[in-house]
Amino acid sequence: MFKNKNWGVLLGAAFLMATSAVGPGFLTQTTVFTQALGASFGFVILASIILDIGAQLNVWRVIAVSEKRAQEIANMVLPGLGIFISVLIVLGGFAFNIGNVGGAGLGFNVLFGMSAEAGAILAAAIAIGIFLVREAKKVMDRFAQIMGLLLILLMVYVAFTSAPPLAEAAVKTILPDEISFTAIITLVGGTVGGYITFAGGHRLLDAGIKGKASLPEVTNSAVSGITIASVIRIFLFLAALGVVSKGLILDESNPPASVFQLAAGNVGYKIFGVVMLSAAITSVIGSAYTSVSFIKSFKPAFEKYENWLIIGFILISTIIFVTIGRPVHLLILAGALNGLILPITLGTILWAAHKSKIVGDYKHPIILTVFGLFVVLVMAWMGGYTLVEQLPALFN
């Protein structure tokens, strides 16, 4: 797939995007929707994969040919728009990072019995340690690859032990009994929404992989990122399907843990701890790195002290979780904003893709523009609906 000297960075960017997407919310959403839709959830996954690829290819390609980060592109489209988008990305990434830290703490709790708060502190220390070394970004790439491969292997094992009805899953993926529009939108937002959309593209730009000549590499890396996240989701879906198809009841308080335990007993429960820890800590790293990438271009000092800003981002998220817990209202608002971030950012990228002052003589494929516009319209409607529905909760 990657045949040149940049293969490590290209693969690292793909895994960074994928593991940023696979967090505590990813695990819960997949399990809950499988319980609700059964084998028909396979169709939702297939539809979301197609939409995810359409969104990511637009974003990564335009970042590469423009040789600019998303906020810089946005400011060229409309002065001040880049600052507005950066604020949305950073606030959303920060709020969700509190949940990611909490998820990592839960993983340590399952594995070793320590409190979630102590586990969160230990997970934050591991993440911070990566950004204290000289070659932090290379270490980040390798860490994301190792954790991503571990997630895939564990998901395959649990899916195998749960013995899902594969033939039914294959048929219902093409001919579902029901189609959940909400599930499709949730999966798209959870896989390529908010900061996740730009994790890989900004990583490649930082590594110097840019320009029209790099487009084949960038395209492969983007598709690989979606593929990795999708493989993890598919095997988690199969694991959950194997459990619910037997009529077993999932624990509403922690559906993903219930799937692992029912599929493989106490060993499965420990595997869940490893999966939750791996998914959460890589999301902590991806969220912090990508959020800071949206502000570091505004001042030279930000670029110079990038790693320290990332460390501060992780520290503050951890302190809030340990001292206050997960601020529910903030997470509710952040979830609604996350649904709005994708149409705003993707719409901006699509506009920029056809402005020669940004992309030069590059001609953006029409099919990608159409794909992107479809995602923008659908996500804008759903994000707006969610925001209107959830705002009253902030004042109760």
Automatic annotation (TrEMBL):
The keyword Zinc does not apply. The keyword Transferase does not apply. It is found in: Membrane. Its main location: membrane. It comes from the Bacteria. It holds the Pfam family Nramp. The chain crosses the membrane at residues 36-55, 76-98, 110-134, 146-167, 179-201, 222-249, 269-295, 307-324, 330-353, 365-388. It is a multi-pass membrane protein. InterPro entries: NRAMP_fam. Keywords: Membrane, Transmembrane, Transmembrane helix. One of its GO terms (biological process) is iron ion transmembrane transport. GO terms for molecular function: cadmium ion transmembrane transporter activity; manganese ion transmembrane transporter activity. One of its GO terms (cellular component) is plasma membrane. This is Divalent metal cation transporter. It comes from Pontibacter cellulosilyticus.
